[in-house]
Amino acid sequence: MRNPEAALQHGLTQLGCGVTSEWYRAQEAAQHGLCAICGRPEVRRRKRSGKLIRLAVDHDHITNEPRKLLCSSCNMKIGVLEDIAWQTEALEYCKQFGISTTKQAEFNAAFDAKS
Length: 115
Description:
The protein is mainly α.
């Protein structure tokens, strides 16, 4: 069995945004082990071992600057929000097949109101 801290540092190194295990642990403590967006703990588990996965390090994909820790669900959703071209294509697809985009329109309106 591997050392958990060494495994964490290895995973963070693979991410490539310069985050250390010390930064991760400090951020995890500051967030009380909860996602910075939804405020919930991670619930996704590894398929083979059944162990909970760690919160993901959200980072700017241009500057590589780390932001906060997110659950896998929010991390995936924030990735979609950052991809405007994909959003446009997905909305066009929904329109083509008559899929309701009411929730997306409500979200966009609320987001625009905050900006």
